[in-house]
TrEMBL record:
Organism taxonomic ancestry: Bacteria, Pseudomonadati, Pseudomonadota, Gammaproteobacteria, Pseudomonadales
Residues in Phospholipid/glycerol acyltransferase domain copies: 306-433
Enzyme Commission number: 2.3.1.15
Subcellular location: Cell membrane
Protein name: Glycerol-3-phosphate acyltransferase
Length: 821
């Protein structure tokens, strides 16, 4: 009786070893911690379809992970004699027609055991297996044979799939379903309990397959032709033909050309090729890749169309995010790329990697606009994951740029037309310790013309591959459900009808709200690293140099502030301490060391001094509120707590808008109050009754408080420049554009005269944003001629600013302003 089972076990072991001479796997979730297994309850694994190869892969991976075995009997009395089962078995012989999959007998056995043994719980762990993760892209026989798709593979097909894709196999373990939770509702009805378990597992496997493979893809030619046949594009063709007096056939050909120019052509072969190339590339140029909070994406990708919205710091962003998602078992997104990247050689590769191309501006081309809008609508309604950069272009200063509304508006309008498929935005922070384009950014900030992307430029970039660019962090932020945004903006939106042309009057408000949430949550997922910590402290000194021990101590101290009142749950801090970070930064060649008997001096020299402002700006928002509080005591020995909170609250809305701070205006006062407590506890401030006082002069605390204030002082100085110029001209005497231009010139002049090394100090867009916020907050208004008018409220804002800036700075700003008169 025991001979046959033993022989079968030896047979399976032999086949498993033979199979894994060829098969190579990527595995996700195969640890007790990730699965949340209870050690006191037995584990039973479930695979979707009956397959010997899948069974062998399962046993191999549970052995490697040290999980309870899949081949051993389930350790329960009077229960199933196996620790795994298939949800479905196929009916039919080797050559007969396959029929609808049927539940396996072991599903019934497990349910029967759960009903009969109320105290006997079992942890049912679903395991999904994908040979090659290739979506069904074409209807050709070759693709059907060589791809693991949404359809159920036959035996011959499965053999070919394993031969072709076996070295690119993905296995995903998922959190268990508890048997007693399933049967408790139907303990007196075995059939209904069985259907419930089957439904739960069937839904689970479908959701995982959706997240890993993405929706079924149609052929690109069919997609392009379908776009031209949509009602919206037909109407645009007729209108363009009438307006420009062109034959409709020619306009239709132009629309087809536009669609062909835009559409991606995702190829699993290209994605696998890029995976190999990028794995080599990351290992060559980076010291490591840190991925945080990926579970957010895995959770939302199963039931929603996902829009990834990363910050944009480098061209590497495109490749990096797709690589991270693919390596974690998620389908790479379709990526909105600028038409400038559709270069020879590079363009076709990017298109097959999922890129679709868009022109920089198409406001004056309604036909192109309609085709592009319809393409995006197809992406969302079919459930594709999409990626685009809300900033539009790459940030040259290291800060989050003001979001551009175009793509967000398209997404909202598409969702209003058809909201059957929910859309979820996933903010992504990509943090570099050393950005590859850093030197070219410096040139552009100094006025050098931006270099146009070209194959030759790419070849020049390849020479940088011998350099080290440190570590990279990819942090996923808190997801934003688009339906929730619309509910808050216009609760009755579901009851209204929308077509492709209709723009509801509340659309701009919804876009603005969504843009702010996206930018804020990207910043909330910031990765603090040794480079930006070192840059933040060193740039707070007047001479860009500091004693080594003092520098290390300050970095440790400021890191402790971030831990005392964390900015968000999704931000990450570096391992180690200030000494480790300085050593690392020195090894990256970003700081200099000057030996000295009393202690080595660490400093910034040449272009590195400006480059480090880029990395400081990555994390400036984390210190914005405590630095603002510290600024109050640059020019004041003490203030009442109420006065300190009030002054910070006046400046907060402008900092919030510029740095995308997460706290609302209503929350600001309580957060400022809490930060005052933190600064007091850390001895940077002290209390005397109801007054807050700066520390005694000459102490370490005084030096640290002054250093902290300089994290944000240049931003306040920029605000003061705009206010000084406005007041010098007088109410109703200058337009917003003129104020922006004069403020920029004054800031640039001050930067030269006083040696300020922050390029964003005279960034025109920051002045534009500040002026717009003064108008939004009712401090300024424009008359019928476009001239800016103000009341006494502006004088109060300016006087409050004087309390923040020290005498030297106020005089310097007044001098520069008068020189420009």
């Amino acid at each position: 009786m025991h001979l046959f089972p033993n022989f079968w076990g030896l047979f399976l072991t032999m086949f498993r070893k033979i199979l894994f001479l060829w098969v190579r796997t990527d595995v996700s979730g195969a640890t007790r911690e990730e699965l949340g297994l209870d050690p006191d309850k037995p584990v039973c694994y479930v695979l979707q379809y009956s397959s010997l190869s899948s069974r062998l892969v399962l046993e191999q991976e549970v052995r490697r992970a040290g999980l309870p075995g899949a081949e051993a009997p389930l350790p329960v009395d009077n229960g199933p004699r196996q620790s795994f089962f298939f949800l479905y078995r196929r009916v039919g012989g080797l050559f007969s027609r396959r029929q609808t999959p049927k539940l396996t007998p072991l599903v019934h056995d497990l349910i029967r055991y759960g009903i009969d043994h109320e105290q006997g719980d079992v942890q049912i762990v679903p395991v999904s297996l994908f040979w090659g993760r290739s979506p069904d892209k074409e209807k050709s026989l070759v693709k059907l044979l060589l791809s693991d798709t949404w359809s159920v593979a036959g035996r011959l097909q499965k053999l070919l799939i394993i031969l072709v894709h076996g070295r690119n196999t993905y296995v995903q373990f998922n959190k268990p379903v508890l048997l007693q939770q399933v049967v408790s509702e139907y303990r007196d009805n075995e059939e209904r309990a069985t259907r419930k378990l089957a439904r739960i597992l069937r839904t689970h496997f479908r959701r995982v397959r959706q997240a890993v493979l993405g929706p079924d893809l149609s052929h690109r030619r069919t997609l392009v032709q379908g776009l031209v046949r949509t009602q919206a594009v037909k109407e645009a063709i007729r209108e363009t033909a009438r307006k420009d007096d062109i034959p409709p056939e020619k306009v239709r050909a132009k629309a087809r050309k536009y669609a062909d120019e835009i559409a991606a052509s995702m190829s699993i072969v290209t994605i696998r090729f890029l995976e190999v190339v990028l794995s080599w590339l990351w290992n060559r140029i980076y010291n490591g890749l840190s991925i945080n909070n990926i579970q957010v994406v895995k959770d939302v990708a199963q039931d929603n169309a996902v829009v990834y919205v990363p910050c944009h710091r480098s061209h590497i962003d495109y490749l990096l995010l797709s690589y991270v998602l693919y390596k974690n078992g998620l389908v790479p997104p379709h990526i909105a790329a600028g038409i400038n990247l559709n270069m020879p050689v590079v363009g076709p590769i990017l298109r097959r990697g999922g890129a679709f191309f868009m022109r920089r501006s198409f406001r004056d081309n309604p036909l192109y606009s309609t085709v592009f809008n319809e393409y995006m609508h197809v992406m969302f309604t079919r459930g594709y994951s999409v990626e685009y950069f809300v900033e539009g272009g790459r940030s040259r200063t290291g800060r989050m740029l003001q979001p551009r509304p175009g793509m967000l508006a398209m997404t909202i309008r598409s969702f209003l037309r058809d909201h059957r498929k929910p859309i979820v935005f996933v903010p992504v922070y990509i943090g570099y310790e050393k950005v590859m384009e850093g030197r070219s950014y410096l040139g552009e900030l100094r006025g050098k013309k931006k270099q146009k992307e070209s194959v030759l430029g790419l070849a020049r970039t390849m020479r940088k591959l011998t350099n080290s660019f440190g570590r990279v962090s990819v942090n996923f932020g808190e997801a934003i459900h688009l339906s929730n945004v619309l509910d808050n903006c216009h609760p009755s939106w579901r009851k209204e009808a929308y077509d492709n042309e209709y723009r509801p009057p509340w659309l701009n408000t919804a876009v603005e709200d969504l843009a702010t949430q996206v930018a804020t949550r990207i910043n909330g997922s910031v990765a603090v690293n040794p480079i930006n910590m070192t840059a933040t402290v060193l740039l707070s000194t007047e001479r860009l140099a500091m004693d080594e021990r003092q520098l290390v101590g300050m970095m440790d101290h400021f890191a402790s502030l971030l831990k005392a009142l964390p900015y968000s749950e999704t931000m990450t801090l570096p391992e180690g301490n200030g000494k480790d970070w300085l050593t690392y930064c020195e090894g990256m060649g970003l700081v200099t060391r000057q030996p000295q008997k009393l202690g080595d001096i660490i400093g910034l020299e040449g272009s590195n001094a400006i480059l480090m402002t880029y990395y400081r700006n990555n994390i400036q928002h984390l210190f914005a509120i405590p630095a603002l509080i510290a600024c109050l005591f640059e020019n004041n020995e003490s203030l009442t707590r109420d006065k300190a909170v009030f002054l910070c609250s006046v400046a907060y809305p402008y900092l919030q808008s510029e740095l995308f701070l997460k706290y609302s205006a209503d929350e600001a006062e309580s957060i400022i109050d809490r930060w005052i407590d933190v600064l007091v506890e850390s001895k940077l401030l002290r209390t005397d009754g109801d007054r807050i006082c700066r520390p005694q002069e000459g102490t370490d605390a005084t030096v640290r408080l002054r250093s902290l204030s300089r994290f944000v002082i240049q931003t306040l100085e920029r605000y003061h420049i705009a206010l000084a110029i406005l007041r010098k001209n007088g109410s109703g005497k200058i337009s917003a554009a003129e104020l922006e231009e004069q403020s920029t010139m004054m800031a640039e002049r001050m930067s030269i005269l006083f040696g300020l090394n922050a390029p964003e100090f005279f960034d025109k867009s920051l002045f534009r944003n500040f002026i717009a916020n003064l108008q939004k907050n009712g401090v300024l208004s424009a008359d019928e001629d476009g001239q800016l008018c103000y009341t006494d409220a502006l004088d109060e804002v300016a006087e409050d600013a004087r309390l923040v800036l020290n005498v030297e700075k106020r005089q310097a700003l007044q001098q520069v302003t008068m020189l420009g008169a």
